[in-house]
Amino acid sequence: MHPELFRIGDFTISTYGLMMALAFLTGLWILKKEFLRLKIPIEAVDMIFWRAAIGGIIGARIYYVILTKISGSPEPILNLIFSRSGMVFFGGLLGGAMLVLHGVRKNKYPLKTILDAIAPVMIVAYGIGRIGCFFAGCCYGYETALSWGITFSDPMCAAPTGVALHPTQLYETLASFVIFGVLWCFRKRISFRGGLFAIYLAFAGLERFLIEFFRQKDDYLTQNPDFTMAQLIGLGLIVLGVYLFLIWKKLPSDS
Fold it and tell me: Which of 33, 125, 217, 240 is deepest in the core (most CB within 10 A)?
């Protein structure tokens, strides 16, 4: 794969960075369409977008640093903070959610309606971002003899070279696009606010829980080397999604 798209002197454009930018721009475009459809004040788009982006990046980097140091890495914390690699989705989800929720509450926007608008945005952006992971060679899978196994050859890739690996990044991209299709089809059919977001949580948690069986582990739980923190969080998202769906279905739409 090609972690670097091109270089001009000391300035490098990474393929990962390009795909992240594409994910944000695609998400912004979809978010504006959904805000117009749901009659949410359009000025809320920029507030939510920038809070999600800034909170997501900071949260993803902090979680990466924590996991890396827990694993025993001797790398100085400042190097980890300012490195070009190192973004963990669940940290980004938490960081982005905190800033977005604060902004929504502060401006008194309809929370559940906004969550429904955000749901398809988050999953499609996640899928595009995983294409960037594929080009960078991070988040790779176990060795495999399957015909679609991917062999990385670029020494700059994070993945080991010369062996066929499960393309778990592309598994996640495919799963994310399928989930996006489901959410997009049902976004006008669910009669209560918050239901679409609850479905997103459950599907996102299930996707991540399953992918960990094929992905090289980097965050084992101390007591069980076959179970990761990502799987624990994934199960939590499934339970939370189901719980919110059942609770919000019983409440009035404006509740």
Answer: 125
